[in-house]
């Protein structure tokens, strides 16, 4: 695996990030924000795919203060429970600062003026929303983010494009929360929301029992078109 060290914003330490590099000059960069299962094979595959499309891709190890290098399998019940425990201990505000550090690292590896987007899943979908509101990332995408309804007070800080993929049968995001997200964001000029009828949390996982192939391909195609538009030179 290709791992790099990323300095914290505070300069008081560093953490690992998986990096996948394209064959030529990057067309931009994508920060891949992990689920609660760490930077596991599924997240690394996401990075490798972005690299195949011409982007520099980085996946920061956001659990480095709790369990450095942890990789968990959502299909193994004991590992799923460990992941839930890590999420409960995780400081999300600090996580956003680490994502911002990863954004800075990615920009330093791009040609001048290169743009950086982020794509997050599950916990990472929530963090993608927070990244859109709290950092200068150029575009963000969140897949089945959890608890977005209690972040809506930050929506006015979203100044750059954000796309959200919502699984309509998400057992972690009840229908009333989904409705609150739509009420809060449907009229936001920078936010695009796609709903996936019949789909549950994790439908776009690269592997395992949660993946729903047709909806995953649809969501990923929308994400790729969205980031191609907004990360290209001269894009919105």
Order of helices and strands: EEEHEHHEHEEHEH
Strand segment tally: 8
Task: State the CATH superfamily name.
Answer: Alpha/Beta hydrolase fold, catalytic domain
The count of domains is: 1
- The CATH architecture can be named as 3-Layer(aba) Sandwich
% residues in beta strands = 15-25%
Major sheet strand order: 1-2-4-3-5-6-7-8
Specify the number of helices: 6
Helical fraction: 25-40%
Shape annotation: globular
Structural class of the secondary structure composition?
alpha/beta
Distance between the termini: 34 Å
Describe the structure.
With 236 residues, the protein is of the alpha/beta class. It has a single domain, classed as 3-Layer(aba) Sandwich (Rossmann fold). Strands 1-2-4-3-5-6-7-8 form an eight-stranded mixed sheet, sandwiched between helices. Helix 1 links the parallel strand 3 and strand 4. The chain is globular, with a radius of gyration of 16 Å. The N and C termini lie far apart (34 Å). 44% of the residues are buried.
